[in-house]
Amino acid sequence: MKPALLPLDELLARAGSTPFYAIDIAAVRDKIAGLRALLPADLQLCYAVKANPLPALLRAIAQSLDGADVSSAGELVRALDAGFRADSLGFTGPGKRDDELRQAILAGARICAESTGEIGRIAALSEQLGRAARVALRANPDFTVDTSRVRMSGDSFFGMDSALLPAAIAQLRHAGLEFAGLHYYCASRMLDAATVRALHAHCAEEALRICDAADLALPWLNLGGGFGVPVAKDESPLDMVSVGDHLRALSDMLKRACPGIVLALEPGRYLVAEAGHYICRVIDRKTTRGRTWLIVDGGAHQHLHATLQPDRSEPAAFPMTLHPSVPGEREIVSIAGPLCAPFDIFARDIELPRASPGDLLVVHCSGAYGASASPLHFLGHPSPAEIVF
């Protein structure tokens, strides 16, 4: 990915100080349009709000999408305030509180139940409220995604074992609740198209078998998201053309089996990551044990995802550009944030223009899992501004 050229002076003036996030709305809309062109025309394209819940972003893209996936009452309110229709929202998550379920029922959102206990609570709340809930079931299929370390299927606490779904459907029917479909989300940061195609095929075929056994038509099938975006040098873009071709064939198969079915996806990172940028400033430079370090005023407290994480032996080294006050020679440097924590490292031994205190560092590909997915209160640093342009 070639880093975008940014109007840094204008953005810095708007933000007031570093560090800050800037999201390019035109780039997000282009990404949505490009993905739609590859997918079945009638596929329901939703946005996983967890990727970036910034209200200004949600407002800007609500009319370009068919719905959203939310995972808390807070996200539910943000999506509604941004203009998403209540009936287009899917509420996922393994630990929904009763007050959150109550809000989702009253709003008319589709609740993706993750256990039989949750179905029982939904049934009791529906009776109390005099409102029939729309309930989909989140499946945990026996399918291992070996190409991703971020997995939600198999030995995990997400969803229900697929073998238990017929009994869960019977529980819904006994309680008089609407069966609103099946939901799958098995892994994140997937970059291997063959794996994605195999996963989609497995889930679609399994969903049809489950509904056939229950003598029900499958009204809605959400195959999740999890499409990755390359950030490290050894990562390649997901072949979305291949994935889209397979989804069109899969959609045709599903329609033959269930003419009224709605097929859905809920990408998050894939739509917004590359449109976002995290801008921080060089505070200091130092040499320790022969390694040159740049110390910047941004770090893991605001952009945890871009720093050294437990699933990596090295920091991901997101695409970065340095904007020196005096252009000149280049150097090999490592970059760390201001925290008293050994994981607060953006990169080791990368080539950049020679930096001086005061220069700006832009961490690209930062539109997803940024401020909202970081420990903002750690060490008492102020929160970053988040702006759209």
Task: Detail the poorly predicted runs.
Answer: none
Architecture per CATH nomenclature, i.e. the level-2 architecture of the largest domain: Alpha-Beta Barrel
| Rg for CA atoms | 22 Å
Give the rounded overall mean pLDDT.
94
CATH class of the largest domain: Alpha Beta
Helical content stands at: 25-40%
Question: Strand content of the residues, in percent?
Answer: 15-25%
Biggest sheet overview: 8 strands, mixed
**Structure classification:** alpha/beta
| Count of domains | 2
Number of strands: 19
CATH superfamily of the largest domain: Alanine racemase
CATH topology of the largest domain: TIM Barrel
User: Which quaternary structure do these chains form?
Assistant: single chain
SSE ordering: HEHEHEHEHEHEEEHEEHEHEHEEEEEEE
Number of helices: 10
Please give the alpha-carbon distance between the first and last residues.
20 Å
Principal-axes geometry comes out as elongated
